[in-house]
Amino acid sequence: MKRTVLCILGIALLGLLPLGAQSFFFGFKGGMTIGIQEWGRSFQRDPLFRYHVIGFLESLEPDDKYALFAQLGYHVKGSAIRTYGTTGRLPDGTIIDIPARETPFEFHNISLSLGAKQKFSIGTDTKVFYLLGIRGDYTADTNLRPTDLETYSVYSTIYPFEEYVNKFMFGAIAGGGLQWMFSEFVGGVLEFTVNPDFTRQYNQPEIPNVINPNPNFGSNTITIPERQISNVTFEITLGLRFLRKVVYID
Q1: Nearest-CA neighbor of 228 among 46, 36, 33, 42?
Q2: Is 93 helix (H, G, I), strand (E, B) or coil?
Q3: Domain 2-244, what architecture?
Q4: Centroid of chain to Cα 158
Q5: How far is CA 50 from the centre of its chain?
Q6: CB 196: neighbour CB atoms within 10 A?
Q7: Strand pairing partners for 211?
Q8: Whole-angstrom Cα distance, residue 121 to residue 180?
Q9: In this predicted model, what pLDDT tens digit does every residue of 46-74 receive, in sequence order?
Q10: Where are the domains of the chain?
């Protein structure tokens, strides 16, 4: 799956290469993604710590104070349920250890972003910048249910269902960072961005008359509440920038 996604990213970036004769930057970057999701009245979730990889193109303006950019990335978004290790007591008095556990809810998204950035010089070859853009996402894969769920099948209904996942989403990208040049043609970039979704990643209606996984507390059936999940991610990104320089000769 990951190899297929990387091939798609490479082909798409080649298609984005400028056809004109203007100088531009291109490169690759990646880093940590902190995913947060709002699930309404459903059970509580914690942040999900995953990763992202991005290929990008950036225009080079004559004064290098502004730039337009296009970038295509692979982002793992979502949230998680975490329980901490503790001890319990069986009816016969035996003490048992209950290990810590993490249940992730992952959405593997391919994101295309278009936007602009403004730069401010703080040294000969160093600039700070802020950026703002729009983003479209396609969900290529998900991991929404625990791998050992068949062992506890009675609990299967409380986890998300694949059929309610929206494949296409729209959102924004905003942030800032630092860029510098190692040489005339090679530079580095460090970015911090926030990436909210405008549309839902998951949209499930209320589901009544579901078997209660714990009938000892309450009735034999429960109602699964409506779930409308949207993503917000915070990303820390480090990468390399390469200059394609066009020189005109009279």
Answers
A1: 42
A2: coil
A3: Beta Barrel (2.40)
A4: 23
A5: 8
A6: 14
A7: 221
A8: 10
A9: 899 999 999 999 998 888 899 999 999 99
A10: 2-244
